[in-house]
Hints:
Hypothetical Protein Pfu-838710-001, 5 helices, eight-stranded antiparallel β-barrel
Amino acid sequence: MIEVEVKAKIASFGEMEKRLESIGATKSKKEFQEDIYFNSPIVDFAESDEALRIRTTKENDDVNIFITYKGPKIDKESKTRKEIEMGIADSEKCSDIFEAIGFKKVRTVRKNRQYYTYENFEISLDDIEGLDPYMEIEIGLEDGKDYSNAQKAIFELFEKLGITDGFERTSYLELLENLNNN
């Protein structure tokens, strides 16, 4: 799958919720996410622009765990990249396996995420521990599909919501790492 994603810093969740409701976006779910990121013993993912994580999501009493690999970004405007995801049963055992074969834990990123749906977009309002509020808009495409129209549509939706700047291509992991290095 190709994930076409753009995120922007926003001023407040309340204002953005009103704007989303005004265009007919629908709240779909709210969940807590904990992402444990790993670096490869072979390639430095910070340099290759890849990511490997174990994500645990909690929505009410439902807990889901996934391994996700994200390939390098494939354009200069967004976070468009190949994504492979697989459900697993035990994050601790998976983490132990990764570490046993040489992968190193980099950081854990925690966020509360409110999802909205609008047409074929998935929109999330993200409250990330240690960062300002962000909104992400994404569309998933099959491998090999042209992503330029999806990317254009995402930027048009941001504009419809009154957002024309504050766009960020770096991941939440990178933003948090940059805060620690400054």
